[in-house]
Design a protein that fits this description.
alpha/beta, Chemotaxis Receptor Methyltransferase Cher, domain 1, 12 helices, Rossmann fold, globular, single chain, binds S-adenosylmethionine
């Protein structure tokens, strides 16, 4: 019997008695994965995440018929594609439409009317660029597209561009499709839902898809915030990095924030998740709204 046949026989024997052949995760193995994930993605896996890591990677070990976590670790080190798969399995992708509604309310009542007026007086361009950094399955950039399209009409010459990026190729695939379960419709304000979402029919029943007007504003890219960014990304009026950096190790978090600030327009706004704060008085930003930050120097002018 070959090794592969042996493994298959063992699998089917254990399946027949309802036991899955799952290798245990040793302390030393957990430490290896902890530092690997931090190095690769900036994400800090606390010691309390050990069971979570084991359960999320177990399935992958079974798929690859790996005898141990050490063997899987070696595979990840040797194969950059497997590192991508591993990170796909380990990221937390919870999201929703119009998450942190107070931020959308702030933008729509305090910021967008001013930008629109400034544009009408020629004081700012008619192009608005936003970046959803850590966009997960796409609800965040689609929400932002709906909000921006409503406030900056194409008929007045406005142009909306939204970069939606994530580390995980799995969520990006989903985000690119711009289709969502109909269950999520309740998260979208009625006027946006009617204008910007199309209900699926036939094989797409139970799903909805963002309209072509919304999709035309979106561009998707895999970007790792723990790595230097391509300088060709350009400059953004809005940078959303919400509920991403909370998972980062502090040094990586500072590095990622610096990268985000490098592409933030002097009059632009950075939006973080509601539980996320900027540390230190030396911060170049100050809070102007609910977890919304602007450059200090402009406000002090
Ligand atoms: C909890 S979701 C937040 C989604 C959305 N921003 C929101 O607030 O609803 C965090 C996202 O950050 C992504 N992420 C984690 N580490 C990252 C990294 N190093 N670079 C880019 N994205 C990352 C994850 O894949 C995940 O989709």
């Amino acid at each position: 019997m070959t090794a592969r046949q042996h493994a298959a026989a063992a699998r089917s024997a254990s399946a027949s008695i309802g036991v899955r052949p799952v290798p245990g995760l040793l302390d030393a193995e957990f430490r290896l994965f902890q530092s690997l994930v931090e190095r690769e993605a900036g994400i800090q896996l606390a010691d309390t995440k050990r069971a979570l890591l084991a359960s999320r990677l177990n399935q992958r070990l079974r798929e690859l018929e790996m005898p141990s976590f050490s063997a899987y670790y070696r595979r990840v080190i040797d194969d950059p594609n497997e590192a991508i798969v591993m990170l796909d399995r380990l990221t937390t992708n919870e999201t929703s439409f119009f998450r942190e509604p107070s931020q959308f309310a702030f933008l729509e009542t305090r910021v967008f009317p001013r930008w629109r007026e400034d544009a009408s007086k020629g004081r700012r361009p008619r192009r608005i660029r936003a970046w959803s950094a850590g966009c997960s399955t796409g609800e965040e950039p689609v929400s932002m597209a709906m909000s921006l399209l409503s406030h900056f009409p194409r008929s007045e010459g406005f142009e909306i561009e939204i970069l939606a990026s994530d580390l995980s190729t799995r969520v990006l695939r989903q985000a690119r499709s711009a289709t969502f379960s109909l269950d999520k419709a309740v998260q979208i304000p009625g006027h946006h839902l009617h204008r910007f979402m199309r209900r699926g029919i036939g094989r797409q029943a139970g799903r909805m898809r963002a309209s072509s007007e919304v999709r035309a504003t979106l561009r998707f890219e895999r970007l790792n915030l723990a790595r230097d960014l391509d300088p060709r990304l350009g400059i953004f009026d809005l940078v959303l990095c919400r509920n991403v950096l909370i998972y980062f190790e502090p040094t990586h978090k500072r590095g990622a924030l610096q990268r985000l600030l490098r592409v933030l327009d002097p009059e632009g706004l950075l939006l973080l998740g509601h539980s996320e704060a900027l540390q230190g008085r030396e911060q170049p930003l100050r809070s102007v709204g609910p977890s919304v930050f602007a450059w200090k120097k402009l406000l002090d002018d």
